[in-house]
């Protein structure tokens, strides 16, 4: 039986400790990803699509690299487990804002995807209120993020290179809509999990000293 607080490392039979360290090389790469979010957004809003795609590519590489180094160097941290999905969501929101500002995506698509993230923030507050930690990421959510990270760059590529836009645009929209559907499917799963966790929590017994004598 593995000790509490341990997670199995990908591709390794041994366990990797999840620590509370803050200053690690993988975490520094995650902070770099976060710092590039406003750069990405500004480039996208200003129509510098090629530069924005390069920044997005650098972010994707550092995402892979920090995960690899965290396992390789035994530097998996709780902070890193929070920063990685947070960075993914911020890049998605930034891409939606930039593409929406330039009217390159339907307005409703941006609203649908952002609304799901708002719902997750509310769920996080509910969980915290009941003393419950963050929910584990479900495969549907990972598939949604993957679809959006294919669809949104394709939409950017269609704007950057008009010659291939007629091919990239429909695929970009298709993957983006698929990502939005899966995003909400994962959101519904999170709602169900939250409800189940709250209902399954043991109700503390009342202290008899707090009751009034009748």
UniProtKB/TrEMBL annotation:
Cellular compartments annotated: Membrane
Gene3D superfamilies according to UniProt: 1.20.120.1760
Keywords: Lipid biosynthesis, Lipid metabolism, Membrane, Phospholipid biosynthesis, Phospholipid metabolism, Transferase, Transmembrane, Transmembrane helix
A GO cellular-component term linked to this record: membrane
Keyword Mitochondrion tagged: no
Membrane-protein topology: Multi-pass membrane protein
Gene Ontology biological-process annotations: glycerophospholipid biosynthetic process
InterPro entries named among the record's database cross-references: CDP-alcohol_PTase-I, CDP-OH_P_trans, CDP-OH_PTrfase_TM_dom, CDP_ALCOHOL_P_TRANSF_CS, Phosphatidylglycerol_P_synth
Record keyword Hydrolase present: no
Transmembrane segments: 107-128, 140-161, 167-192
Any single Pfam family the record assigns to this protein: CDP-OH_P_transf
Gene Ontology molecular-function annotations: CDP-diacylglycerol-glycerol-3-phosphate 3-phosphatidyltransferase activity
Family statement: Belongs to the CDP-alcohol phosphatidyltransferase class-I family.
Protein's name according to its UniProt entry: CDP-diacylglycerol-phosphatidylglycerol phosphatidyltransferase
